[in-house]
């Protein structure tokens, strides 16, 4: 990587990062459908990609099951958090900020309907929960240069806290990003179906950890801009959730 960047003068900004794009599932559909549902396209379901790398969280499509819907909400927040803390240029699909659905249609370009049209009513209805989290996370990225490095991260700028690299069953990852001025950021992602009690490393000198994000919590506790103090030496990271801690004075 270092030789490649020296030859081509590439920077993190040359990397376009995304979870989903304009083709394929929307972010909501990524967590709501295991398979494409393209009958409305008139091609007998033969169009569109069959490899969607999605998980419907237990039920295919729309449901009134509160637990499934809560899990889908967490998963969308997890994906958005991962995107916003990734070095490089983030790309989002219009509508993901309110949870737009195409009802499993992954090849919807030919429809001039609600499938593709921006749903302003849904944006308004979700302004204080889903949209709030997405907006706050974007603002957090913009206000923290450690998430927008001009150059690729060096080994002294990140501490990987994973102790189980070679366990193929491990679905937990934690690391710290160091900004050089004590404003470190701790991140943990738990993709297990059970909670993980993880040790929180000591914060930089004269700093304390503040919880900014816990995707398992409901709005407005899922994102607290000023942070929540009194973080203990361990943290129970809930199933299918992620946390972000910020070191502050």
List the defining traits of the structure above.
249 residues; alpha+beta; 10 strands; Isoamylase 3, chloroplastic
Describe this structure in words.
The protein is α+β, with helices and mostly antiparallel strands. Helix content is 20%, strand content 19%. It is built from five helices and ten strands, in the order αβααβααββββββββ. A hairpin with a 7-residue loop joins strand 4 and strand 5 (185-190). The longest helix has 19 residues, at 66-84. The relative contact order is 0.14.
Write a short abstract of this structure:
The chain is an alpha+beta fold and 249 residues long. 20% of the residues lie in helices and 19% in strands.
The low-pLDDT segments are none
Biggest sheet features? 6 strands, antiparallel
Shape: globular
Give a count of the beta strands, DSSP E runs of length 2 or more.
10
Residue share in β-strands: 15-25%
Evaluate the radius of gyration: 19 Å
Structural class label? alpha+beta
Determine the mean pLDDT. Answer: 94
| Proportion of helical residues | 10-25%
Distance between the termini: 36 Å
SSE pattern, N- to C-terminal: HEHHEHHEEEEEEEE
The order of strands across the largest sheet is: 3-4-5-10-7-8
Helical stretch tally: 5
Describe the protein's topology.
Elements: H1 2-8, E1 16-17, H2 27-30, H3 66-84, E2 89-90, H4 120-125, H5 130-142, E3 158-160, E4 172-177, E5 185-190, E6 196-199, E7 208-214, E8 223-228, E9 234-237, E10 241-248
Parallel strand pairs: 1-2
Antiparallel strand pairs: 3-4, 4-5, 5-10, 6-9, 7-8, 7-10
Helix pairs in contact: 3-5
